[in-house]
Design a protein that fits this description.
The protein is of the alpha+beta class and about 800 residues long. Strand 22 (about 600-605) and strand 23 (about 610-620) form a beta hairpin.
């Protein structure tokens, strides 16, 4: 007999930062060796920080206590073998520094993987405990010059005390200031030597100082690397060797020009990337730092970190809401665009949920805090977006591998170019050496290295600004390659709440009488269908008569009394089992509604048959138009996966325009359906609510969770979370992903073409070091600027909030 048990993943793997870690797969593999265990997968828990391991086992082979002991044993084996640590870094300002840190950590014996997040300034490291420990990893970071800082308090990303004016920011930017200083000294030496009669010794002195300023950061990295005996063959090495070679040839002007432009391009590149990171950091500034809390009879302004769950916060008109909570008093329209991407303010009444960072409208509201600072939706979004960059995009991993091979090849080629032509008497030694140095500049893959991560960072930032959370470059790229889309029905394609769709009164009965009597009885019931009837009557402003005590007939309906006569409300089985013959009109109406896949409610008051009500979960408004937009983006197959019955599913599918329907599915059946689709298509996306659909979301190429702002589970489960409860985020996310993929391809084409052109031009003597530097650094800034265009992405039909 197959049974299931769930256990908190943190109990089994206490050191694992989240369910995406490789050790979770190791745990599943270890569990597979345990007797009687059939399968295991991760599902979300009840809070943002928890995930559950769902274990399927054969109860005829193994008992529940044995399964629990086996899981604990497997967790202990994995925990004893592997460790994980997420370390804060001293501010790093570019992809080159991030790659240097990753390479330095990966060289350590025992480190299995290291990934650096620029937005979060974090290094995420996985290691083998037999080879190294966390203290040794921290020590390595300090020796590399990237000493960790103390954990930041409150919302990350706030930049208190940051210089406000452009001149102040320039002077405070050490990298840019030193680069500009190198340029000024270069210009002074060149002008002085050529036109002002400056002695050669004095000019060389200015060049030397220009060299020092231009190469300061490069040399600093190399000195620290040499001290450790670990030298990386990277882009910086190519530039240093080329500059020193130019000086050895007496070409001080070109060498200083190289270092000046290289350092300036780096500084400007970092400033440009700061703009993309700033789009993420700006999320932290959405929420106020203080909240107006009602304590006793007084309103007190306190830091938002001191607001406890359950306290009431007063939000005045036009103010930003500082906490997540529920409206307890007042009514207002709230602009939720910063969190959910919705362009139209949402009406909020008592009991409705509001989120920190959203903007209150014209009414004052009292909000009961439901999440403390650090656990708010905004805080979770910031954390997840910051950590998204620790998962690299496929193209980024490819370019990293390319660079690790290409740079040593270039160095060897430069040596051959400097030596072979003079030996063969093709060029002079001076010409060969100069062209060799020019080759180092031409073949430096700066633009190639920065083109993909800058595009990924900008794409993730723009998605977050518009209510779509994409948890890493790999998911951003994969989303653009999806060929088939699968969607859950209830709560995804439909509203998730049954509504009365048909009111069919009997002979001599009005719609008002039918609804009034039905609602009078049903308002004492907690059944979802009963609540739908009451909502319909209240929406029609009907006056409901008094009803007697409610009697429930399980699975069939209810009985009560109105005006001294018995009222019976139920489905067809209620009458069939009582052997009651329905009037012809009532029977035909009931069969017609049932054929349409609607729940049937038949109402009889005394001896009068009042009529039939049809109830169904209605499709979301505009779903068909949204699905049409998705098809227009090239996703040719859209499939509904639902646990509902075939008739209901096919009716909804026909109404919204679904291509294929798979009905009556259990969660494991949805997983099988997704797997079969993945055999037919290159990429499959699954859209669900993030809880019941967790296994299918995890199986699909890209899992997309609905309503991430309202459910912690949705944020934790899927690769992409739509913060608003709106499917319109899907065509936006797909469009952004495809634009990002296009930008990445453009950047690769630009960088490779420029490299090929410069290699040919420098080795043939058409370009010297100076022109090569101009074109080379210009291409680097070009690809960064091209990537930043994603921050202005505006697909049709979706608002963009800057």
């Amino acid at each position: 007999m197959k049974r299931t048990v769930r256990t908190d993943l943190r109990l089994l793997l206490p050191d694992v930062p989240d369910a995406r870690d490789a050790c979770v797969e190791r745990l599943r593999s270890q569990l597979g060796q345990e007797k009687g265990i059939l399968n295991a997968h991760v599902v979300p828990g009840g809070s943002p920080d928890t995930a559950l391991l769902c274990i399927h086992y054969d109860a005829d082979v193994v008992s529940l206590p044995d399964v629990e002991r086996g899981a604990a044993r497997a967790g202990a084996v994995v925990t004893a073998g592997y460790g994980h640590v997420v370390l804060p870094l001293r501010a790093i300002d570019g992809e080159d520094a991030a790659r240097r840190i990753e390479a330095g950590l990966r060289r350590l014996d025992g480190v299995l993987e290291a990934s650096v997040s620029l937005p979060a300034q974090l290094a995420r490291v996985e290691f083998d405990r037999d080879g190294i420990d966390a203290d040794a990893i921290r020590s390595e970071l300090r020796s590399m010059g990237y000493a960790e800082q103390e954990p930041r308090e409150g919302l990350e990303g706030r930049e208190e005390g940051r210089p406000k004016g452009p001149i102040a920011r320039l002077l405070s930017n050490k990298e840019l200031s030193m680069s500009l200083g190198a340029g000024v000294l270069l210009g002074a030496a060149w002008v002085g030597e050529r036109w002002l009669g400056l002695p050669g010794v004095a000019a060389r002195g200015l060049y030397v100082v220009s060299y020092v300023l231009g190469a300061w950061d490069l040399v600093g990295h190399w000195v620290r690397a040499l001290r450790k005996g670990s030298v990386t063959f990277d882009i910086d090495l190519l530039m240093l060797v080329a500059a020193l070679g130019a000086a050895a040839l007496g070409e001080w002007t070109e060498g200083a020009f190289l270092l000046f432009l290289f350092s300036l391009a780096h500084a400007l590149e970092h400033l440009a990337l700061d703009r993309a990171r700033g789009a993420i950091k700006a999320l932290a500034d959405l929420a106020p730092t203080t909240a107006r809390v009602l304590r006793g009879e007084q309103m007190i302004d306190v830091p938002v970190e001191q607001v406890a769950v359950g306290e009431w916060v007063i939000v005045r008109p036009a103010e930003r809401i500082p906490v997540d909570g529920k409206v307890r008093k007042g009514r207002s329209a709230v602009n939720q665009a910063p969190i959910t991407g919705e362009s139209v303010p949402v009406e909020k009444d008592e009991g409705d949920e509001v989120y920190a960072g959203t903007v209150n409208g014209e009414g004052a509201i009292h909000v009961e805090t439901t999440r403390a600072a650090g656990d708010r939706t905004l805080d979770r979004v910031i954390k997840l977006v910051e950590e998204a960059q620790t998962t690299k995009a496929p193209t980024e991993r490819l370019t990293d591998r390319f660079e690790s091979v290409f740079v040593p090849v270039v160095l060897v080629s430069a040596v051959v170019l400097a030596v072979l032509p003079p030996i063969m008497d093709w060029w002079s030694w001076g010409t060969a050496f100069y062209r060799s140095m020019s080759l180092l500049v031409a073949a430096s893959p700066c633009a190639l290295a920065i083109g993909t991560p800058s595009a990924v960072l900008a794409g993730i930032a723009q998605a977050a600004r518009n209510g779509v959370l994409i948890k890493g470059g790999v998911h951003l790229e994969n989303l653009g390659a999806v060929e088939a889309l699968t969607l859950d029905k209830t709560g995804t394609l439909t509203v998730g709440r049954p509504e009365v769709t048909d009111v069919r009164p009997g002979d001599g009965v009005t719609e008002e009488e039918l609804l009034a009597v039905a609602a009078a009885v049903e308002r004492s019931s907690q059944h979802p269908l009963a609540e739908a009837v009451v909502r319909r009557a209240e929406g029609s402003s009907l006056v409901l008569p008094d009803a007697g005590e409610l009697e429930s007939v399980t699975g069939r309906g209810v009985r009560s009394s109105v005006a001294g006569h018995t009222v019976e409300i139920g489905n067809l089985r209620l009458w069939e089992e009582a052997d009651v013959t329905l009037p012809e009109r009532v029977r035909l109406d009931a069969e017609d509604l049932a054929t349409d896949g609607k729940s049937v409610i038949i109402v009889r008051h005394g001896q009068r048959w009042l009529g039939v009500l049809g109830v169904a979960d209605r499709p979301r408004p505009g779903v068909r138009q949204i699905l049409d937009r998705i098809r227009a983006q090239g996703i040719g197959t859209i499939v509904m996966l639902t646990g509902d019955n075939e008739g209901v599913a096919r009716n909804v599918a026909a109404e919204v325009g679904i291509d294929e329907v798979r009905a009556g599915l259990l969660p494991e059946d949805k997983v099988d359906a997704v797997r079969k689709l993945m055999e037919r298509y290159r990429g499959v996306a699954m859209v669900g609510d993030g809880v019941n659909d967790a296994p299918a979301l995890a199986t699909a190429t890209v899992g997309i969770a609905m309503g991430g702002a309202g459910t912690a589970a949705a944020l934790e489960t899927a690769d992409v979370a739509l913060m608003g409860d709106d499917l319109a985020g899907i065509p936006f996310a797909v469009g952004l992903s495809r634009r990002t993929r296009m930008v990445i391809r453009q950047n690769l084409a630009i960088s490779l073409s420029v490299m090929a052109l410069l290699i040919a031009a420098t080795t043939t003597g058409f370009f010297g070091i100076g022109p090569a530097v101009l074109v080379h650094e210009g291409s680097t800034l070009l690809v960064v600027g091209n990537a930043l265009r994603l921050l202005r992405f505006r697909p049709s039909g979706h608002a963009v909030h800057d």
